[in-house]
From TrEMBL:
Residues 121-329 form the Alpha/beta hydrolase fold-3 domain. It comes from the Bacteria. The keyword Signal applies. One of its GO terms (molecular function) is hydrolase activity. InterPro entries: AB_hydrolase_3, AB_hydrolase_fold, GDXG_lipolytic_enzyme. SUPFAM superfamilies: alpha/beta-Hydrolases (SSF53474). It comes from Sphingomonas hengshuiensis. Keywords: Hydrolase, Signal. Residues 1-24 form the signal peptide. This is Alpha/beta hydrolase fold-3 domain-containing protein.
């Protein structure tokens, strides 16, 4: 049972883009039925092998539940090994004061170097609010820091269900405030800070952009939201077409994640608006944004709608939807043309944002 829970978490991490290492090291997935194979028809041909493997893992392990997540943590976390780090890009693991009355927050500080101020990124990892660890993203963030000559701080925020939205969002804000306050030591230009995250981390990045606007303490130059998890109603009161989310993060798992994060049933009128980016009444005054998502990702409709609302609120917003791409495809099939287009768009957008505020 313990091994099954650990493998379930490892596979879920891979599918939520936080642990490509788990994907490579996991055993062969279960065989697919003819019915399962038919569900792959909406997936782009170049992505079907990765999708088939992802679907086989999901079939073998079954759905993610809050009970399995809690049991995994008691059994040691269930996290796979993090990819080997680049020796030439410095990584400093720091503990900083957390929110008032809360534990310290762990940060991974990447490519810090006092001297000429460079742009910076505050990163929040994915995992459906209930899984994941910042450590598994360090190698990928090192590569991004090298490409953009920037400093990146990734936050090890507390996870649900043990910690709800108020705690994890404040953990992330504490990381952003520390980053801003230590700009000189980090070699950071305070005018060129972006927030970035994938999946649930994209939701956290969106919440950070909203908090930064509302509190008026830290100006942001950009927000990069990668298939962000923005709306608690998706997969619950808001149904999705049958060809959507047949691979990767499912509607039922999405509801598990949101229920744990909110501490209550998602999709109801009593859900606090400050916990859900899509429920934020006004998006005016937020940092410019790029939202990138796959065309058969569970989050595609909510992401398109959030981009529309940002644009209508006069926030400069770019939206990229990759046809036939599923949730986490860029991590699971990085050599495909779709993943290369996706990743290039992210880097180009960050570079433009940093140059515009230089």
């Amino acid at each position: 049972m313990k091994a099954r829970i650990r493998m379930c978490c490892a596979v879920a991490l891979a599918l939520s883009t936080t642990a490509t290492a788990a994907w490579a090291q996991a055993p062969a997935p279960a065989a697919l039925s003819a019915e399962d194979e038919a569900k792959l028809a909406p997936v782009a041909p170049e992505l079907r092998d990765a999708a088939r493997r992802a679907m086989g893992f999901s079939k073998m392990m079954g759905p993610i539940t809050e009970e399995a997540v809690r049991a995994s943590r008691k059994g040691g976390g269930g996290f796979p090994p993090a990819p080997e780090r680049l020796a030439e890009i410095a990584v400093d693991e720091r503990m900083i004061p957390g929110p008032q009355g809360a534990p310290e927050v762990k940060l991974f500080v990447i490519n810090a170097r006092a001297g000429t101020p460079r742009p910076g990124i505050l990163h929040t990892h994915g995992g459906g609010f209930i899984l994941g660890t910042a450590a598994t993203d360090v190698r990928r963030l090192q590569e991004l820091a090298r490409e953009l000559d920037c400093v990146i701080v990734s936050v090890e925020y507390r996870l649900a269900p043990e910690t709800g939205y108020a705690g994890s969002t404040e953990d992330n804000y504490a990381g952003l405030r520390w980053m801003y306050g230590n700009a000189a030591t980090l070699g950071l230009d305070k005018a060129r800070i972006a927030v970035m995250g994938e999946s649930a981390g994209g939701g956290h990045a969106a919440l950070l952009a909203i908090a930064a606007r509302d509190r008026g303490e830290i100006p942001l130059a950009f927000q990069l939201l990668v298939y962000p998890m923005l709306d608690d109603r998706t997969g619950g009161v808001t149904k999705v077409p049958p060809h959507i989310a047949t691979v990767g993060w499912s509607a039922s798992e999405n509801q598990v994640g949101w229920r744990a994060f909110l501490g209550q049933q998602p999709g109801t009128a009593s859900v606090p608006t400050r916990a859900v980016p899509a429920r934020t009444q006004s998006l005016a005054g937020l940092a410019p944004a790029l939202i990138v998502v796959g065309g058969v990702d569970l989050f595609v409709s909510e992401d398109i709608d959030y981009a529309r609302r940002l644009n209508e609120a006069a926030v400069p917003t770019e939206l990229l939807v990759i046809p036939g791409a599923f949730h986490g495809f860029d991590q699971l099939a990085p050599a495909t043309p779709q993943a290369q287009q996706f990743n290039k768009a992210k880097v180009d957008a960050l570079r433009r944002a940093f140059q515009a505020t230089k």
